[in-house]
Amino acid sequence: MRWAGRFEHNDARNTVLPSGNAHKWGHRRAKGILETVNHSSTQPGQVVIAVDVGGTGIKCGLVTPDHEVLHSERHKTRTERGAAAVIETILGVAEGLAAKAAVEGLTPVAAGIAIPGVVDESAGVVRYASNMGGLKDTPLRQLAADRLDLPVRVGHDVRTGGLAEATLGAGKGFDEVLFIPIGTGIAAAHIIGGKVLAGGHWGAGEIGHIIVRPGGPLCGCGQRGCLESIASASAVGRRYSERVGTTATARDVAERAAAGDVIAAEVWAETVDALAAALLTAQALYDPELVVVGGGLAEAGEQLLGPLRVALRERIAFFTEPEIVRAKLGDEAGCLGAALLALSVAELDHPTDQAAPVTVEHVTAP
Ligand SMILES: [Zn+2]
What we know:
Elements: E1 27-30, E2 33-36, E3 46-53, E4 57-63, E5 69-76, H1 83-103, E6 107-115, E7 118-120, E8 125-129, E9 135-138, H2 140-148, E10 152-156, H3 157-168, E11 176-181, E12 189-192, E13 195-196, H4 227-231, H5 233-244, H6 250-258, H7 262-286, E14 290-294, H8 302-315, E15 323-326, H9 333-345, E16 362-364
Parallel strand pairs: 3-6, 5-16, 6-10, 11-14, 14-15
Antiparallel strand pairs: 1-2, 3-4, 4-5, 7-8, 8-9, 11-12, 12-13
Residues 209, 219, 221, 223, 226, 228 line the site of zinc ion.
């Protein structure tokens, strides 16, 4: 995980299993809900195409029904080219993976695409993605299904990553998991029994915009004092830089705080305090058993989580304190989550506890 990188992730909404080719791929629609009607059995060589689209890079690969990553690639998103070019890149990358599978004698059976923004996962439409070249009302699922001739599922990035962390990563064995990646922004995914809550308008989990310091720093959303404006990796770097007059990243702040820099320690303590305030709200709303902290800021490990546990404990009132741990899958979470989306639409998911993700091959494309 890049320290200050946008952290990617996302989901499956309750029992809805959207597919552009529902009838063809063994689903039926009943009362607006797409239900699974038959379970296919896994054939040797079957893989899904998993694509995790971020603001700067695309992480993608071929993944087996047992969640083994057989092949992975990274590409640049280059959002400055605009929405149409970004979509073409996503489709081209997915098509390239299908070709790679064919060369390796593998059979792609479905594709999953995780993307940041407001994603209507039922319709497979990206309603809005500000950092994707201004993507708006884009029927990504249909475009990909047409291009690949495969069933496709599209999910929100944080909810997709959260699904992977809860199912295959740090949340394995827990029923109620709150996944919070802290990178350029802060969001959350609430996973209950392997299902991610998406909200009534596909907007659940925006805890970065809980106001923790009324009148505080201006946030990108227009409010003041949002959690994200104080505790995101970029905000941590910015707040310290403002005080000392030189540019520093969140990683610099963590290192300097550990080395005894008083101002860095102050910024770090404020960060922990803001996160604890938001976690208390999250506990009141979601009551998770486990909080999984990911993203760049989580690379600070116990330097962040230790004081965060203490600060939450001091505020916890009558709530039960959740366990707070660091994410395990790092920046592979979004890609594995996209694979889970694909496996669900292909009806091939094996939600076993044995399958550990393994990267066999890693290719960096130009
Ligand atoms: Zn905000």
